[in-house]
Amino acid sequence: MLIALASALSMGLTSANAVPAASVEQSIEERAVTRGAPRTSKYDNQKAGLLGLPVRPFQSLGTYEGLNYAGIELINVGTALAGVKAQSAPNVIAFDVLGTSLGGAGIKKAQISSIYDGSRTDRFDAKSLYFGCVLANAATVLSTPLSCTLTARGLDGQGKERARAKFDFKPSVGTLVANMKKATFGKEFVGIKTLELSVNGGIASLAVATLLDNLETVQYHKV
To answer: What's the CA gap between 159 and 31, in Å, rounded?
Structure first.
């Protein structure tokens, strides 16, 4: 009887101290990455083209500070004599500039992702960014602020939507130079693989550009 009691007590202790399989798997996943400090990407340490050059082939920014930018170009807006001011001058990133984008004219989507060849970033939290829209003249560096709605989608590794948010940019009528609008993402944008951006503007034009700056993220790096 004593042997049976000891065996029962041993089994009870083992059961009480057991760690669920799901928790073990989660702990392994957490150990596989390290959480970085909050980072604000300002894009000002790269050589950039000028907004409005009449002939300039579209070229995505590519990999920058741990993330890959697809369908997004690096632009120098300088001191913005007209249009939208850079949040941190002189560079901004932009998509659908002069009618060129991911898939050609009229497609206004861009992606910032941790998924690319050689990536050491497992996932990231999207915290905030600044944005504005302009109606750019293809023959000059000058542009006009334009009202628009930015849609942001947080995607997982399979491209499924995990989060969505919309932000309005509404410069005053007649404004020649507008400040960027800050878009702050909610907790739904934590641990995403890709941030997808698209815009709807009041004017259907090939010359509409969406300018972005100072993207704040927290990245989780593979170890």
So the answer is: 24
Give the span between the Cα atoms of 116 and 120, in whole angstroms. Answer: 9
pLDDT in tens, 149-189: 999 999 999 999 999 999 999 999 888 899 999 999 999 99
Rounded CA Rg of the chain:
23
Closest among 15, 12, 38, 5 to 190, alpha carbons compared:
38
CB 145 within 8 A of CB 83: yes
Q: DSSP 3-state assignment of 172?
A: coil
Question: Half-sphere exposure (CA, 13 Å, Cβ side) for 199?
Answer: 30
Helix (H, G, I), strand (E, B) or coil at 29: helix
> pTM of the entire structure?
0.78
Q: Where are the beta strands (DSSP E) in the chain?
A: 33-35, 39-41, 49-50, 62-64, 67-70, 73-76, 83-84, 91-95, 109-113, 121-136, 143-146, 148-155, 161-169, 177-178, 181-184, 194-201, 208-222
pLDDT 10s digits, 47-101: 876 654 433 445 678 999 999 998 888 888 876 667 899 999 998 898 874 444 4
